[in-house]
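Hi, here's the filled form for the chain we discussed.

Project: internal
Contact: R.S.
Residues: 86
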Amino acid sequence: MGVLKPNLPDLGDTPSTSMKTLQFNTNINCGGCIKAVTPTLNGEKAITTWQVDTANPNKVLTVTGDITEEQVLALVEDAGFKATKA
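And the returned structure, exactly as it came back:
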C-alpha cells in the first residue's frame, strides 16, 4: 500500500467543513503506477491526503480533501489511469 502526501496543515489553518474522504477502484496496481500518478495527485491543492491500497483486488484509491468525485476521476485519467467510484 502506498501512502503519499501526508496531511500537514499550515499553522493557523482551520479545517474545511467540506473536507471529505472518497474512494475509487483503480488500475493503479504497483509502485511504478503510484510513482506515475504522484505528481498529478500531489499537485492538486484540494487533496489533503491520498493513498492506494495495491493489496486490495480493486486497487482502492482513498482521497481526503475538499474535492469532488468528478475532479478526482479527471485527475486520475489525466495521469493515464482509470478509476470508478467504489
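Let me know if anything looks off before we file it.
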